[in-house]
Every structure is written in C-alpha cells, then in structure tokens.
C-alpha cells in the first residue's frame, strides 16, 4: 500500500514538472518573438535613418495602419527613387519580413502627436500558433495600455504586441 501511495506522489510530481516545462516552452517562444519584434523595429528605424531627409521632410510616408494593404512600389534597388518612393519600398520590404518572421504578424507605424520627430511602431503577432483564436490574452493585453500620446493605438484582440518610439 505504501508503495502505491509513493507511486501516486511520484506521478503527480512528474506531471507537475511536465506542466512547468510546457509553460517554460511557451514563455521562451514568446520571448523569442518579442526579440524578433525588437529586431524588426530596429530594421525599420535603420531604413528611416538611411532615408533620413525624406523621413524628416515627410514622416507620414512611413505611416501605416494595422490592416493597410501593401501599395505598389518601384524597385528602388534597380531604379532611382525619390525619398517617398524609397519609403514605400522600405515599408513593403519590411512588411514582407514581418509576415515571414512572426505568426500572424502585423504592424502600425504612426506619428507622435507630441513630438514631430518621433515615430511610433507597434508590432503584433498571434499569442498562440496552435489555436485559431487565443482567448486568454489578459496577461498580455493588460500591460499594453497606451495613452492618447500614442494616437489611441491599441493592441488588436488575441495578439501580443511590442511598442516602441524611434527617431529618424
């Protein structure tokens, strides 16, 4: 009888460890996606810095809403482009990289209403790839409350977001 109780206790301990391992895997995946989002924000900021004159003269050329469709862009690697055309090309290339890097990846790029030199970038991705819709997003959405200074940008439902300001 004592050995049966010991086996039950051992089984419960192993199941607890399996649960901890599963949670650790989920959290490490989230951390990895967040690191990718930081890299993508840095990539777009570098593109703006390389096109600095256009980014400062017309920062709205880099503006992007959550569900904006890609616009036709000239191939700026093969042809000469204006600063605005380069911004459109940069955004299209960046969106392609975003879609390839993060599950369900989408982004919004907006101008700061308080500082005309700052551009806000928010990147969102699916919280759980294995579910069509992840319903338990409270622990991810609750810290992401953005004030009016961010033009009312909110993280879309069922997605995890990373938000940053950059300055071209």
UniProtKB/TrEMBL annotation:
InterPro entries assigned to the protein according to its UniProt record, in alphabetical order: Pilus_4_PilV
Protein name: Type IV pilus modification protein PilV
Organism: mine drainage metagenome
